[in-house]
Amino acid sequence: MVTTDGRVKLLDFGLAKLVPPPPVGIGHDDLTLPRISPTEKGTVMGTADYMSPEQACGAIVDYRSDQFSIGLILYELASGKQAFHRESRAETMAAIIR
User: Fold this and answer.
1) What's the rounded Cα separation, in Å, for the pair 5 and 64?
2) What is the pLDDT of residues 26-37, one digit of tens each?
3) Distance of CA 72 to the CA centre of its chain
4) CA-CA distance, 46 to 27, in Å (whole number)?
5) Domain map (residue ranges) of the chain
6) 68-88: buried (b, 16+ CB within 10 Å) or exposed (e) per residue?
7) CATH classification of 28-97 is 1.25.40.10, yes or no?
């Protein structure tokens, strides 16, 4: 977003979910791939055009889903069109999954 005085601001309109903290005694290296799912399996939430395949399937998502989504945004910025956009939300999600 660009403010009225020309400054650029990066905004995150993503979904957030509270998760319990990791158990005491788990080291930093153990947190590379979380043992606690940040999103419950089977839940599909978000804007279809920017979902990762695992998100569109309702599978467990983690930081890699965010990386996929930022790639979709970069693609749109470079090409001027959304990578997987179709006529309906269901068709868009199917295109992402395939």
Assistant:
1) 34
2) 555 544 544 445
3) 10
4) 32
5) 28-97
6) bbeebeeeeeeeeeebbeeee
7) no
